[in-house]
Amino acid sequence: MSEQVKYLLIGAGLAAHHAARGIRERDKAGRIVIVGDESELPYTRPHLSKAYLTGKRERAKVIVKPLEFYSDELKAEVWTGRRVKSLEAKKSAALLDDGTQISFEHALLATGGEPRRLAVPGADLPGVFYLRTLADADAIKHAMESAKHAVVIGGGFIGAEVASSLTQKSIATTMVLPEDALLKNQIGPAGKTVTEYFQEKGVNILRRARVQSIAGKDHGLQVTLVDNVRLKADLVIAGIGVTPRIDLAQAAGLKVERGVMVNEYLRTSDPSIYAAGDIAQYHDARYGHVLRLEHWDNAVTMGRIAGLNMAGTNQPFDHVPYFYSDLFDLDLEAWGDMYRWDTVIARGSLGHGLTYFYLYQNHLVAGLAINPSKEDAGALQRLVAGTPEVKDVKAYGDVSVPYERLIG
After folding, report:
1. Domain check: are 104 and 248 in the same one?
2. What's the predicted TM-score (pTM) here?
3. Phi and psi (nearest 5°) for 395?
4. Do both 126 and 78 map to the same domain?
């Protein structure tokens, strides 16, 4: 079977969803086909480790829009449960795993990432889970129904959010961290505050620890650490990072490094093919170095800009990175470049507004607020966007000095 489309969106996640909406802002008629290898319509992945696991958000509320939205409002086709097997950039063509050949004028690569797998004996036993897809979340929810003890491996966002959800469902949870604090690679010294809070909530945290093996034991699992500590578990969840799915781009001959390289308009090395979301690697003019972001906000914003540009707009991607996380009753919100900093200034306290300012070469490059008011969040975002030179370190650490005065 052969198909011709104007816009082929490869990957049916948030980036593709917002790309389709961006296209329709400029092009009301060009045929859009979204191809995704999952059986689901685009959904909001951050809910999976938080509200969905705890039962605070039902399945229908995780799906971004119903099928009728795509067919009736966007006039777009969503082909679920199908995978793009190969991409021929020079021919502007793609081959699906069911043999369908698609010719396109413009394509978007939004293939996302996949969880890194544990490389230890027993990593594939029943009861060992990874969380990336809605199907993964459903499997974990089912296992949680009878679980009393859980082990979470990894202290990044997925590990921390899952541990929070498990504990809130009265499952005794132990976290195994290779670092000395939660979220250390994501938020630096602020992770110490989060770690202490988790311990107050009853989470058992084993620092600087690594898993040696996992074994089935007495109708459950036993996790053995390298120091021979043994942990009993009814379920094990590994959150040890994500690998971008760049194989398709590599095979197509596109320029690839840690991700798929794009220019300021999100075009790849082939001008008819764009990339957005977790796989897109770009040079950020504001921060002066290359970034590849795995955040919800990045997928949303990149997707829309890519869609607009596919439809003829030449709009540069210029966006202050943002991420959030909900951990127990902590609301973490961060703006800016959390990947390159040399100084951190803390102000406030956990119960009375806590903010961390991240500086690089004496310029503010990022800010993290815990439980900020709406007004403070907006002011912090504006402050970070300007990357100001920090001339008065004392003022940044003084809670009596409002953000607005620091903006100047």
Report:
1. yes
2. 0.95
3. -65, -35
4. no
The pLDDT > 70 percentage for the chain reads 100
Is the alpha carbon torsion for 41, 42, 45, 47 positive or negative? Answer: negative
Same domain, 167 and 148: yes
368 in the same domain as 283: no
Alpha-carbon distance of 176 to 197, in angstroms, equals 16
254 in the same domain as 202: no
Rg from Cα positions in the chain? 22
Confidence bin at 40 (pLDDT 50/70/90): very high
CATH number for the domain that contains residue 355 = 3.30.390.30
Burial (CB count <10 Å: 0-12, 13-18, 19+), residue 301: buried
Residue type at 165 in one-letter notation? S
Average pLDDT over residues 265-276: 98
Q: Phi/psi of residue 174, each to 5°? A: -115, 130
pLDDT digits (tens, 9 = 90+) for 330-368: 999 999 999 999 999 999 998 888 999 999 999 999 999
Asked if 33 and 9 count as a contact pair (C-beta separation under 8 A), the reply is yes
Judge if 108 and 254 occupy the same domain.
yes
Q: pLDDT tens, 300-316?
A: 999 999 999 999 999 99
**Angle value at C-alpha 137, between 132 and 143, nearest 5 degrees:** 130
- Name 172's bridge partners: 149
Cα separation values, 396 from 189, 288, 343, Å: 16, 24, 12
Checking DSSP bridges between strand 289-291 and strand 343-347, what pairing results, if any?
Answer: unpaired
Our CA angle for 320, 323, 324, nearest 5°, is: 145
Q: Which residues contact 337 (CB under 8 A, 6 or more apart)?
A: 284, 286, 287, 291, 321, 358, 360, 365, 366
> Domain limits at 154?
117-239
